[in-house]
Design brief:
mainly beta; 4-stranded mixed sheet; 3-stranded antiparallel sheet; rod-shaped
Length: 202
């Protein structure tokens, strides 16, 4: 924010301390202060103004107190990027603070955009997606707000192909599945009686 007043010709300005000030030697510097705590912080600044046009160089000073309010906690997810299998649920956010307002964008696949910890569901099994969600948290009393974001990588489900055969003669051995192996995939058959990963014997 900008503090002070417009400059007057012939006046010399000196702010102290210089913490967070863009320039301590002008009448209206900007100030940037950080409060990482949970309660208000106060900073006192003194401005000394000297009239350089007078031989006596008269001066006067004034004090202002700035209150820096903390930002609300905004956590979209435990990390900036998460992965989930398609059609699976993924919990976002953290435990809510009833004193704060929450807003998620976009609303796509979220159970509720007005809570701190909605549930994400991709809603589709085919194709992968890389989605960005932004959480904005506001303190309605101070109007201070903070945002956080998370990228969600939705991994598509592997294709399961059991083949076309659905019967066999007693004692015969048939092959189940498409007859090929997808690189990177693992297979688990049930119930017992299936051998070799893709063969069925009865």
């Amino acid at each position: 924010i900008q503090i002070g007043t417009p400059p007057v010709n012939g006046r010399k300005y000196l702010w102290s301390p210089v913490t967070g000030l863009s320039n301590p030697n002008i009448s209206n510097p900007t100030v940037s202060l950080v409060n990482n705590g949970s309660t208000d912080l106060q900073f006192s600044y003194t401005l000394q103004v000297t009239d350089t046009l007078l031989s006596t160089r008269c001066d006067s000073s004034d004090v202002m107190v700035l209150t820096v309010r903390p930002l609300p906690e905004a956590v979209a997810a435990a990390s900036d990027s998460v992965q989930v299998c398609a059609e699976n649920n993924l919990s976002l956010g953290i435990v809510p603070n009833p004193a704060l307002n929450y807003s998620w964008q976009p609303a796509l696949n979220l159970s509720n955009t007005g809570v701190s910890n909605p549930v994400f569901n991709s809603g589709t099994a085919s194709g992968s997606a890389y989605l960005l969600y932004v959480l904005t948290v506001q303190n309605p009393v101070t109007t201070c707000q903070k945002s956080d974001s998370v990228h969600i990588l939705v991994n598509s489900l592997p294709v399961v192909n059991m083949g076309n055969l659905d019967s066999l003669c007693s004692g015969d051995t048939i092959q189940l599945g498409p007859g090929y192996v997808i690189v990177g995939a693992t297979y688990a058959w049930s119930p017992a009686g299936i051998t070799g990963g893709q063969s069925f014997n009865k």
